[in-house]
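Chain X:
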Amino acid sequence: MSAPDENPENEGESGNKHEDAETTLSSSVVILPPEAIREAAERGQPVRVSIQALYSGPLPPPIVLREYEQIVPGLPNVLIDEFRAETKHRRALQRVGQYGGLGVAIISIIAGGFFGWLAGDWRLTLAITVPVCGAVGIAQLVEFWLKLK
């Protein structure tokens, strides 16, 4: 078993010559300089290397899709088809919501106008139309803002 200051994983803590070259990204991520890894290899000490890849988005990156293809032939096509179907479905629901909001606004304008005409008071038209159209307008703005994030 090696002493703590001979272990390349502990070099930043032990204060040896590689401490200045060490870069710490967070408390759990330490990047060792290539010299420290070479020296550990020359001394025959094992070096543990951990690689982590992160991606975001609806589909994995192409290299992962190729690996999926090797494991389950045709799986990348299934994933891409599902992504396309989900996108089409989501856009259809958004259109329904937008047309529904427009329909509610138009109906409130017509109803407000009709009841205002029946009562002979234009303020009744505003009392019915403004809150409904305002709520629909705010809902549309919130949806727009959420798309931007």
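Chain Y:
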Amino acid sequence: MPTILFSAPYMLPFVERFRPILERHGVELILADVHERLEEADILKYAGQFDGTICGDDRYTPRALEACAPRLKIISKWGTGVDSIDAEACERRAHPECFHPACGGYRHGVYAGFRPPPTLDGSGRKKWRMGENPRQSPA
């Protein structure tokens, strides 16, 4: 079961809105004890326990990224700006997709990490199953 470290302070008050959706998709949550941001030392306390994160301005330094490896696969930044995430350190990781500047929120980050991205066909219907998305090949 994939696990997400949920540390975006402006999203935390609404976590119960998202929890049923995530659980339905087999995603477990770790709710961080955060007020403004997780500093490197705070992230180190959670290292090795999560596969992805939905974060605010958390300090993902080279040391924090190394400690979270190899389990950490994706960092989804909630909000604007990514200067607190060391992009070069992410690119040096075995999974360079752990930093995805186009992922700016809940849906993008979770789906980029754990399931195929949603697409719309001509009818406006979302397609989620592998192989239905014409940009993906069946497994």
